[in-house]
Amino acid sequence: EEPVLLAELKPGRPQRYDWKSSCETWSVAFSPDGSWFAWSQGHCVVKLIPWPLEEAELCKTSERKSRGSKAEVRSRGGAKEKTLECGQIVWGLAFSAWPAAEARETDPACAVGLPCLILATGLNDGQIKVWEVQTGHLLFSLLGHQDVVRDLSFAPNGSLILVSASRDKTLRVWDLSRDGRGVLRRQVQVLSGHVQWVYCCSISPDCRMLCSAAGEKSALLWSMRSYTLIRRLEGHQSSVVSCDFSPDSALLVTASYDACVIMWDPYTGEQLRTLRHVPLHSALDYSSEVHTSSLRSVCFSPEGLYLATVADDRLLRIWALEMRSPVAFAPMTNGLCCTYFPHGGFIATGTRDGHVQFWTAPRVLSSLKHLCRKALRTFLTTYQVLALPIPRKLKEFLTYRTF
Asked: Of 14, 255, 280, 341, which is most buried, counting CB atoms within 10 Å of its CB?
């Protein structure tokens, strides 16, 4: 079943043509509970939209023209769409829950006794601005990077550990919780090892590992416990620009300008599969001199059975875990990023003209076998599985070697 375009959101202000404003959507994000959606729509602005929206409201939102409409969209809960004026081009976005005690210390406007939601924004000048989503208030700024903050990733366990990736060739680890004296801990570690701009960072769902991708042919895998380099993942022929872990942390995918996605076992460093982006000539009108399949983004579906990729050949591709060819395509223009809705069912993509598109995605009922594998791999490493006194074929299945 081919992805169907559900809606398209467009910037709500006239396009400016100076280099400082930028109009690209370099990042889109859903909050972990799926209650909010954010996108960097260009013009130094982030849009926050409460989710879910009624279908009629979503359609109305999608029809906005770039003439500066100030209409607000309401969700079922009464929350309102917000515009965050960041003052700089926005490159990276990441949501996290903000414990009630932390929220009241930092922003008294938060509802008493209730956890708040925060959004971190990575900016062109190296700053990271952290916002309270429900009110749209700026909580604080994190300073340290010397160049563009290209990507952000919060630890999924709610520990308020934030990792930032920058064009200054470093990753920085921040602790946004408070110590016993109520002081915000802020910067924890600087990770150095890349020699080019760092494009992407991803923390594994079990919070054991961190993957980073830069303008290099290898991705780096780091320990989130010791903040030391575990290994280099070498296999691509051009710059690695995107990475993502499977929901059980047992798989890692990296996407590169070489038009390939490589699937890795992060524990052993073994390459399990390569997905090659072969151009569909009927869908293209580029010059033959342009490498049209250069990848921009890759992400796992919430249940871990599908991948989505966006490439320069104007296609959104959906891949099934067991197959080497895409199971579905959708034509899109100038795609830059993609992410799944946390509960599945559709995908959001960002484009170079500042738009966001929402696409249907395959809905699947996971088999009992996959659910058992996912449950086991959530707490067992590859080495621990291989040490179990079970048949070889079962080990191969649990370690994703039966593709």
From this structure: 255
